[in-house]
Amino acid sequence: MTSPVTLPVPVAAALEAADAGNTEDFVHAFADDGAVDDWGRVFRGHEAIRAWSDEEFIGKQVTLLVTAVRTTGPTTTVSAQVGGNGFNGPSDFAFTLSGDHLTLMRITG
Length: 109
What we know:
Blueprint: H1 9-20, H2 23-27, E1 30-38, E2 41-44, H3 46-56, E3 63-72, E4 75-83, E5 89-98, E6 101-108
């Protein structure tokens, strides 16, 4: 992951873990009841996030090139060029934080 700006620590940790193929660190960037919202499909809790990631994110050797970052309140939205063996192309990831963990990663256009 290459980022031109400083990201909140939990966001940077999740993106770096995904880019490195480190599922455990990716999952543990989330709060215990955290969730991934992948275009309306919601995966809540560490086990559900791990299963989703194994099938559709880290399991597809995802790569992320950060192209823009914007923060509003507790939400940081990262625009990235996604590569790997799954979806390829531009995407936005809206991360909602609570303390040192992510409570939500919402994937949108």
